[in-house]
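Q: How would the structure tokens look for this protein?
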Amino acid sequence: MRRDRADLFSVRNGALVGGLVLYQVASSLYPLLSPLIGFFFCYAVLLKEEEEKTMKERFWLRNAIFGYLIFTELNKGFYLFSTLMFLFLFYALVVDWIKSAFKCRPCILVAFVASGYVGVFATNTLLAYIMNTSFFAFGWEYALYIATDAVLAIILFRDRL
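A: Here is the predicted structure in token form.
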């Protein structure tokens, strides 16, 4: 039987999705593990810029990022689609300003990650205020999550800007 490249692609992506689900379960059990919201937020922004630059659409990858962010929202108690709402607003209004304000690439990545966490928290707080419900406070864990995701983003995405 002949091996096909599409089979390897499917196996690799299946293993990646399974690993991310297991990591999400582990981050639910151990609260100091980062939920990787800022990392995938940064990756979504970089992917959108790459799509605009090359005029190639990365449909599967973009939808996998959106799926992970929605799964994380459901798992961590955020309002559904709040991350995607903030991502679209952030990309339309803030990305160009951040890229022109910061000149060093790692600073841009850190700004994307930090904006992801702070913006998602602000969006959820705004939705909680509109619905007149309580929402959890911004704690020191978020600083740990931002630092962890920023280091991961700098290591993996420094050549993508």
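The chain has seven helices and no strands.

The mean pLDDT is 88.

Upvote if useful.
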